[in-house]
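FYI - complex with flavin mononucleotide, inputs then prediction.
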Amino acid sequence: MPRPLAIGPIVLPGPAVQAALSGYSDPAMRLVARAHGAPYALHEVVLDTNVLQKGKLQRRILAVDPKDHPVGGQLMGSDPTHFGAAAQKLVAAGYDVVDINFGCPVNKVLGRRRGGWLLQDPDTALAMVDTVLQAVGGEVPVTVKMRRGFDDSPEAERRFFTILEGAIARGVAAITLHPRTVQQKYVGPSRWPFLARCKRHVGSFPLLGSGDLFSPFAVLAMLRETGVEGVTLARGCIGNPFVFGQIQDLLAGRPALRPTAAQQRAAIAQHWQLAVPYYGGEEKALPHVRMHVIKYGQFHAEPLWARERLVQLRRPEQLLDLVGTVFDDRFDGIRPRELRPEDAAGSDLASCSE
Ligand SMILES: Cc1cc2nc3c(=O)[nH]c(=O)nc-3n(C[C@H](O)[C@H](O)[C@H](O)COP(=O)(O)O)c2cc1C
């Protein structure tokens, strides 16, 4: 068993949490993940300015469901002065942790000197950490999400360590490290040996690892090979909240089981029920839920067949019938119930923007 993962005063009952996933990790996804064992989940990254600007987006960001705890709010921006006020708004809305994004590799974000771009500018990055820590004043823990540098140059690595050490010295509670460079985006593997090196470097300071966690077996391997206290599931938990229970099973020495068709139907129905009021009606919720529903098809006994059908989802009234037909109990017997390491989810969201 790994050491317990603590984010400041928040001690989590398990090491595997749900990552911030732009376009995906809304309250519906988080609550379904929690129902399946995720002990902590993050909202998708939000711009400091969007948190501060009145409107529908702000209302959505600040709507924290009482059952959705502990939850992290993740901020991105380029100007330290906005960051403090945005962090305070997140805390007032009920977020239990404020996370700062120094990892997003999307070109538009980099062009505005946000996200991963800040790994090139330790002074500004650390000024942002200072501002958030001051604004939050110890009310909730502050954490940081980083990639392993902007690119592969020695200078980028030096800047990475300046930010890592500076953030820890200033008092952040944990750091999540996705050991790809910003330039690398998603091409090539996540460099776990670098994560192991950082873990040794920071000693007992809580580090969460990210990257290429497409099965519960990969999660156990990352914990074992790198020594991190926690991991954040990202692409590997979209359409697959079951992974959180599978991780608990493996950690307890039990076999990890594939979800049954009934469990998949129930998870999708729960996701739909939660998404409809959040997005203000079935029509508006459908595009957000559809992406998840298609991803559930990956864990179907006949994934290609399932995908062909699930992509036909166009109208809200089709959803439950289509899901009932695709995730029919008759598929349960086709593959063995016990999950094997080769059953990992695909990484076909690799080109998605964060
Ligand atoms: C569609 C998508 C959206 C993402 N959104 C965010 C985000 O909002 N904040 C963040 O810190 N990381 C974000 N990430 C990065 C993931 O949290 C994670 O670090 C990365 O995908 C590596 O993990 P994986 O290889 O297991 O997917 C996103 C990744 C993807 C694929």
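Confidence is low (pLDDT under 50) at residues 349-354. The CA atoms of residues 1 and 251 lie 6 Å apart.
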